[in-house]
Amino acid sequence: MKVNPGGKTPRHISAAEAAALVKSGDWLDYGVITGQPDVFDAALAARRDELEGVKIRNCLSLRPRAVLEADPEGKHFLWFSWHFSGYDRKKHDAGISHYIPVNLGEIPDYYRRFNPPVDVAIIKARPMDENGWFNFGGANLWHRAVIECARTVIIETNPAIPHCEGEMNGVHASEVDFIVEGDGQPPTELPNSPIGDVDRAVGRRIANEIEDGACLQIGIGGMPNAVCALLLDSSVKDLGIHTEMLTDGIGELYRAGRITGVAKRLQPGKIVYSFALGTKELYRTIDRNPDFQCLPVENTNMPHVIMQNDKVVAINNTTQIDLQGQAASESDGHRHISGTGGQLQFVRGAYASKGGKSFVCLASTYERKGQRRSRIVLNLTPGNVVTTPRSDMMYVVTEYGIANLKGKSVADRAKALIGLAHPDFREDLERQAREHGLLPRHYY
Description:
NagB/RpiA_transferase-like; Probable butyrate:acetyl-CoA coenzyme A-transferase; 8-stranded mixed sheet; 8-stranded parallel sheet; cytoplasm; 15 helices; transferase; Glutaconate Coenzyme A-transferase; fatty acid metabolism; alpha/beta; 26% helix
């Protein structure tokens, strides 16, 4: 991290003065998740009619963005997202938000090698400490890479953000041009998804595969939450954490003493993550807690890093799997709904880990327009994006079972996946598989 104590002295300005620095055609970066600006956003929206073609990158909007609300037709502001939240998805449906396909751990490299320079970076952080540092809180990811290639750096301060320990989790005043005082709102909370019967059934199958000393990556949703809840009631001990997203479930395991990290090879004894998103209880747990280390995403998500820990267990959701084992986790046909995120990188990193296991889980069915449909299908929905290729798929889990697809032929995969489908759909899936040559006629 470059720091020049004799370099810049940042100047305090108002949000309106900061927004006045933006010119038509500029590239802006709004930071990531809880690091996105609010008072600057409102001030920039107020300049809508003065600007054209302002391009803004962001990731996972947790609150409505003023620039999009002020420009519903996207004539003045162009919105580019590395990963969709529900809000970003709605704006994509309206034609004013655009997804950038990416493996999340590669994004810092994109800024340094491929993206056009950032004209103005606006990142929310804690107020400057006595040593001149602005702490990013629980959202490290690629903020450092943005700052390195930004022509102008603005920090919007917010003392309500937890102070989070970690590598490169902050920026020094010598690298900052301007400081804007924020509104002091607490970081947005993400309520825990309710755990249903299907989630528990899937979670139980995965939890049974987790050994003492395993190093976990936990994704978002009811099924990963169920795994954490079941581990709380199990005898598994000395768990480690090396994950992209820090969740409430991990926080609960930590407070219960189940996480020690003693078996980890990288950062032993530390809970490693790149961003935290959950309830205020999680934010209280990580505040000034040296057991938690918030790292840049290239240090959490790259497969060659993940694999250095032994017994890595990666747990991720998907929405549809075809009979050859391809998982579509980010779109519904041509409608984009989330993003690749770190799923593929953790699938690969966990597999390469000594004793590692990768689980991709899903409910066997869903309902649409009052009709129940199978999530295990002969062919993916036309337009669906493959997030995890068949060649990378390891364990697939539904409420009806668990199957390891590594080393299985196409026919064996089809047979195994049909066995994970809801019983009402198995006969039809087997018929389709035979008609299309996935299951030869003579196949048992």
